[in-house]
Amino acid sequence: MTVFVPIAGPERLKPSAPRAGSSLVASIERRAVHVRAAVASVCSAMKDIAATDAYWSDVLASRWRDEPLARSESLGLQAAWALVSMRIVGRLLGQLDASATFRDAELWFLGSVRTPSLLSDALVEIISHQAIRDLEAFEYDENLRDLLPYVLDAIGPGSRASVMKDPNTRAARRAKKTSGVFYTPADVAEYITREAIDQHPDAPELTVLDPACGSGVFIRAALQNLYAMGGGDRLSIAEQSLFGIDVNPLAIEAACFVLLHDCLLQTTAGRSPWSVWHRIRCNFCVMDALTIVRATSSTQADKARTEVAILREQLKRGSYVPPSCSTIDIEAPTALFGMGVELSSFFPSIADGAGVLVGNPPYAAVGERDDAAALEHRYQSLASGRVANADLYPVFIEMMWRLTREDCHSAGMVVPLSIAYSSRPQMTACRRAMTSANGRWRFAFFDREPHALFGEEVKTRNAIVFHDRSMGAAPSDVTTFETGPLRKWTSRQRPSLFGSIHFTPLDVDGISRGIPKLDGSDAAAVYRQVSQMTSHLRSVCLRVGTSLPEHAARDNSTPCVFVAGTAYNFLNVFRPHRHLPESSNPWSASALTMLEFADEQMAAVSFALLSSRFSYWLWHVKEDGFHVTRSFVASFPFPPQIEIGRLSELGIELWDELQDDQVVSVNGGRQTVAYRPHSYGRTRDEIDTVILDALGIDRSFVAYLRAFTRSLVTVDEHDESRRRFTDHFTDSDVPL
User: Fold this and answer.
1) pLDDT tens string 488-530
2) pTM tops 0.85, yes or no
3) Contact predicate 61/321, CB 8 Å
4) Contact yes or no for 253/82 (Cβ under 8 A)
5) Fewest CB within 10 A of the end CB: N or C in the chain?
6) Where in the chain are the domains?
7) Neighbours of 578 (CB within 10 A)
């Protein structure tokens, strides 16, 4: 077996990724709370200023296209964030000192350019004192530089954990849940972007698009990657290669300030930061990515390329350029009738699609939309209807091939784990669409315990999805799939997490029913054999239904087996309790799956099957690593040639042994009873051997199952805090 858990590595020092002893949100909030306070002070001073609209237009509005969605309800808020961002970036670049006022920040930002609107002396006086004190409450150091995309996030912390610590963040949590926006740790963005770029044959001379770019975490990672590959100076890369879309104007403006900082790291001499900012801003658009399609005609794109080239030359000369009067018509007939708004309308350089697409799409519902019928027509994952209640992220998965070049592209996204296992019609339709999108698909899967990909504040199970297609690399009508296991790790192991990722080829025709989570060719071969089984456990049951835990404590006239609805380190499979816990707590109300049988022999056989390591492995391969569904239990393979007599004896033996490992838990005042099987390795070895023999699988796979189970339960054998999990195993379980 290939060990898939990461080994311990040197501690990562950058605070933009979770690590042992420090969370991403905690690192951000030590600075961001002061940044938001400064913005609030500036915004309060500006809210009654009649010239706010003019100031936003003269200083911030796009010079390339008049974007209808770019004007938020509060232009004063946008102006306030911009002023604070100017001062932060200027301080980080060493162009401003601690005594710098907002007038100083504005003059530095404008450089040789003089816009029609400037801060009034009165306004400078009002906003300077408290806001500047807030902005000098933290260090302008490498840590702030690393965290810049996060401290310029206008929404702020919005996790369940942040609300528990500070109820004042409740509004931010609501905003993040509504929009589905949770910004990505830098190490996740760096891994996805590096992997996607490395798979493209044109690197480093390629284009990168993030269709939900937020404050620029992925775009920044792309800039760093292309620069390291020798793609040119940072500003040239930003102008020629990097593109971002977001529906939130504050996010777009923040992303441009992040790139401004990075591009001016090399030199600020002879450049107006305002001009550089707007050269970068030409490649960003406040748009709804769902409305966008590749160009169908080159005529419009050629004309737009000429226009944007002229604009860039004007900006390079450092002269003032007024905001554009050329509007992106988001209500054009093409959009209403399903064709969409063409990329060439705002990004002529990638009219026929980007070379690379990366991102972290919103984890929210699509919601009510006037163009629902058009979206159903355009996206296969919305074709089943009920668009309002559909998830957004499958639509963004389709963008991995719909907004990229048809002949040659690569793409990577981080999405919820449900893409792998959910049987909802939308997820099935999305996977069917992925199967029809020719090229190579690769999947990496991540559990939420002991630690989560997005950090402890955002406990989600995730998948990282890659797609690439290269002309000449494979026949154009071929789709291939590569997968990986459901990874678990501790924060101590995180620095080496992404270096441990590898992929296993899948020999399947499609993934519409689900994406198996497999590690190694042996596991893939076994899964393929199991997936062809047509005889299942339901065929030997009188009934497969549900039951409440209290029923397992009663005398049952019918032989039965119970399976708890959730699991983690083991599947809680048991017979009617022989010994009740000495507790007055009421039973849990969580439903169990109950299997009823005609006789005790078949009940003992089924108990042995479901208690096996093989069952634990198959559950991880097919399901989400937490819920144990009735469909999984009922569809468990039951080979007709299995040794009923021997398996029945082993089932009775294991149930006798488990009486010594009854685990009673109380949660919310209600009790549950579980039976932990790890200490009975010899009996489980024999059960697994009987199962493998019946399936025609080599007995050597028992060792794989043994190592698999131990690795998933212990996760990190070198972590003293997890010794209690190691102690559950006996010498018959081979250590990793």
Assistant:
1) 999 889 999 999 999 999 999 899 999 999 999 999 999 999 9
2) yes
3) no
4) yes
5) C
6) 532-726
7) 11
